[in-house]
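Dear support,

Our group has been running a series of protein-ligand predictions, and this particular one with NAP is the one our PI (initials K.S.) wants archived with full inputs and outputs. We had some confusion internally about which version of the output was final, so please treat the block below as the authoritative record. The input we submitted was:
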Amino acid sequence: MFIYCTATTLNGYLATPEHSLDWLLSIPAEGVTPGGFSYAALVMGSHTYEWVLAQENLLAQPEKWAGLYGDKPVFVFSSRDLPISAGADVRVLRGPVAEHLNTIRQAAGEGNVWLQGGGELVGQFLDAGALDEIILDVAPAALATGAPLLPREVLWPRLRLLEARQSGEFARLRWRVERLG
Ligand SMILES: NC(=O)c1ccc[n+]([C@@H]2O[C@H](COP(=O)([O-])OP(=O)(O)OC[C@H]3O[C@@H](n4cnc5c(N)ncnc54)[C@H](OP(=O)(O)O)[C@@H]3O)[C@@H](O)[C@H]2O)c1
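Confirmed final output from the archive:
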């Protein structure tokens, strides 16, 4: 399954326009329960990847990569040549998502694929019929503008609620995404 799991502001932003996550990192993590799903491969856009590289100083300290991602393949969508943390299994993809689905599915085998965002990239997976679940940690915060959670029109009954519960200061919500046709 392709699972989009992310934290979001209550009004549907992932980050500020400058890609800052300070609004998220300032919220205490006590009582927050972890993801609740297993995954065998990850997908992210270039800004998300570059944020993690910088935040964790992964180019200077590549040994930290395994602590974050283990040896799981990480697919990064970008039109640019991106720096890669030494020893990391990072595969840069570009162009239509549909053309890369087989590659990603093969890398994940029987496992799930964690779509980390941003929203426009996940929207492309939705467009390609490759979005099965959305798991959100909705934060007690709003931003006036920023990187959108999912800039697409997706109406009920395509989304079916599977879970809604408290997770520390966050609200954990989970929906199944029904395939079209
Ligand atoms: N709140 C959270 O937990 C959370 C989770 C995820 C992300 N974030 C943050 O949210 C923000 C997301 O920002 P975003 O939506 O602008 O970023 P993004 O999805 O991380 O990156 C967008 C970039 O992905 C590349 N891309 C997307 N589709 C592509 C395609 N089909 N082919 C080639 N390249 C493609 C392009 O990169 P190039 O410009 O390199 O070509 C595009 O500029 C980031 O700041 C990230 O750190 C927050």
